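[step 3/7] fold_predict: job queued, chain A
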Amino acid sequence: MHSSQLATAAIHTTTTQTRNADVNGAAAATMEGSTLATLAYLGAFATHFGSQIWMTFVSGLSLYFSLPRHTFGQCQQILFPKYFALNAMLSISMLIIYVKYFLSGWTTAASVQISALGLTAAIEVVVRLYLAPPMLRLMHEKYRIEGAIGSGQEVGSLVQGDLVECPHYQRIHKAFRRIHMTIAIGNMIVLLATCLQLYFLALKIRIS
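[step 4/7] structure written:
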């Protein structure tokens, strides 16, 4: 009888230890997954925000006021699609990570963050797929006409010359400016949404 009790106690102890080990293992796996998700989210956010600041306030302005206008446009036609494609992928990644790992309930703060991430991703996808291609086509046609009269080598300004009287050129120019302005407004909305994300991150992070 005594041996039976000892065996039962040993089995119970072993079972308890196994359960504790399983719980600890699950907790460790959850913590590791949460840490990786946090790293991925912060990395995506930092890359997204950094590229926005660089393209909007450093690269674009520096090149525009340093290079001939057509050379600047040739640089932008390479950078522009990649910029919006990269940021769209980063925004979608952040949205997925946030919903999967950090959304614990539909609070006001969570709703604002999801809305900001969704709006950011939507604008960047629309710009990359539907606005950037026609803008670049118009730019090529515009530059072709300007090149025929020797325009486009001015730095930091637009000199139309005799093209002011050309209806065809003016239609292309106005269409180009309209799409370009739409993209610029979209980019600023995205930048504001990113700053909103930065605010919510600042609420969570404590530097000590």
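[step 5/7] annotate
The chain has one domain: 36-204.
The helical segments are 2-64, 69-102, 108-148, 167-204.
exit 0
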